[in-house]
Amino acid sequence: SRRCWSVIWLNGSSINCLSHNDSDPAQKSPAGLSTALASVLILTIVVDIVGNVLVILSVFRNKKLRNAGNIFVVSLSVADLVVAVYPYPLVLTAIVRDDWTMGDLHCQASGFIMGLSVIGSIFNITAIAINRYCYICHSLHYDRLYSVRNTFLYLGLTWLLTAIATVPNFFVGSLQYDPRVYSCTFAQTVSSYYTVSVVVIHFLIPVLVVSYCYMRIWVLVIQVKHRVKPAQRAKVKPSDVRNFLTMFMVFVLFAVCWAPLNLIGLAVAVDPSRVAARVPEWLFVTSYFMAYFNSCLNAVIYGLLNQNFRKEYKTIVLALCMPRLLRTESSRCPTEGMRTKPSPAFTNNNMAEVDV
């Protein structure tokens, strides 16, 4: 049967439907490029699955890691993990076959899930930043703001907003196969206004919110360090700063990996007829695979910068050969660590030492 992908002409909005047999063989990607892209994606999938499963198991096993802040860390890991299970293998198949052969249903489904993952990631990173801001800058109100009930409400709201932000892609028709990146993904040239809205709502606004939260934390840390606010001295411990730096690095890496693609989208949306033709294909492809690669980085950052996660990683890996060890600390309910509400002082001290 005739299989088509959409190509948006630069001089207008018409769509040309190309069949596989009509495509020019000269347009097929060089073998070296395909091999490089496949290698990057395989590495991403393996590290993504292993790393994020370790993060989820670490929080599940370790009572000390079961706190409000780490609920969003687990949620972020789920957002990163889901793309390695479904969309990325389809992209890898397209690279190997140099064509999309999985049909339109998988094209639309993989594009939608990839959108959920991307938007869910930045929204969860934003939720983590707000959580860190409240914990460090408004510690006296933290227990009330992030009770078990409220935390799960915030988590549900995060994913509800993610779904609301992703669904319009179906109405705009922006999920299309792009042979340059072997992916069914967001087509930046479908609608200039929609592309600008996506970049602003899904990237720029969350980045500004996160930047504000972390800037306020930095200011407080500097003030405490120079004794401008000595009363806060006991509330900002070295472990607080280390944990804050861990999540700050997660945010920085996300921004660095996704900024090129979003900036390209903004530039194309402003003047599609002139800018789209001038974007080098190597830059476009590199920006996409940088964004894909980001999904495997967070778990690595936790392991490198957070001692508690690093210890749990080692324990879980060792437990693969000794199953009884894996069950030692996971016999209690996963929410047990959040059931009781200690005094604010105890909560601050405990979370300062153990959460991300």
TrEMBL record:
<comment type="function">
    <text>High affinity receptor for melatonin. The activity of this receptor is mediated by pertussis toxin sensitive G proteins that inhibits adenylate cyclase activity.</text>
</comment>
<comment type="similarity">
    <text>Belongs to the G-protein coupled receptor 1 family.</text>
</comment>
<feature type="transmembrane region" description="Helical">
    <location>
        <begin position="151"/>
        <end position="172"/>
    </location>
</feature>
<keyword id="KW-1015">Disulfide bond</keyword>
<protein>
    <recommendedName>
        <fullName>G-protein coupled receptors family 1 profile domain-containing protein</fullName>
    </recommendedName>
</protein>
<keyword id="KW-0812">Transmembrane</keyword>
<feature type="transmembrane region" description="Helical">
    <location>
        <begin position="36"/>
        <end position="59"/>
    </location>
</feature>
<dbReference type="InterPro" id="IPR002279">
    <property type="entry name" value="Mel_rcpt_1C"/>
</dbReference>
<dbReference type="InterPro" id="IPR000025">
    <property type="entry name" value="Melatonin_rcpt"/>
</dbReference>
<keyword id="KW-0090">Biological rhythms</keyword>
<dbReference type="Pfam" id="PF00001">
    <property type="entry name" value="7tm_1"/>
</dbReference>
<feature type="transmembrane region" description="Helical">
    <location>
        <begin position="71"/>
        <end position="89"/>
    </location>
</feature>
<keyword id="KW-0675">Receptor</keyword>
<feature type="transmembrane region" description="Helical">
    <location>
        <begin position="243"/>
        <end position="270"/>
    </location>
</feature>
<keyword id="KW-0807">Transducer</keyword>
<keyword id="KW-0472">Membrane</keyword>
<keyword id="KW-0297">G-protein coupled receptor</keyword>
<dbReference type="GO" id="GO:0048511">
    <property type="term" value="P:rhythmic process"/>
</dbReference>
<dbReference type="GO" id="GO:0005886">
    <property type="term" value="C:plasma membrane"/>
</dbReference>
<feature type="domain" description="G-protein coupled receptors family 1 profile">
    <location>
        <begin position="51"/>
        <end position="302"/>
    </location>
</feature>
<dbReference type="InterPro" id="IPR017452">
    <property type="entry name" value="GPCR_Rhodpsn_7TM"/>
</dbReference>
<dbReference type="InterPro" id="IPR000276">
    <property type="entry name" value="GPCR_Rhodpsn"/>
</dbReference>
<keyword id="KW-1133">Transmembrane helix</keyword>
<keyword id="KW-1003">Cell membrane</keyword>
<feature type="transmembrane region" description="Helical">
    <location>
        <begin position="282"/>
        <end position="305"/>
    </location>
</feature>
<feature type="transmembrane region" description="Helical">
    <location>
        <begin position="192"/>
        <end position="222"/>
    </location>
</feature>
<feature type="transmembrane region" description="Helical">
    <location>
        <begin position="109"/>
        <end position="130"/>
    </location>
</feature>
<dbReference type="GO" id="GO:0008502">
    <property type="term" value="F:melatonin receptor activity"/>
</dbReference>
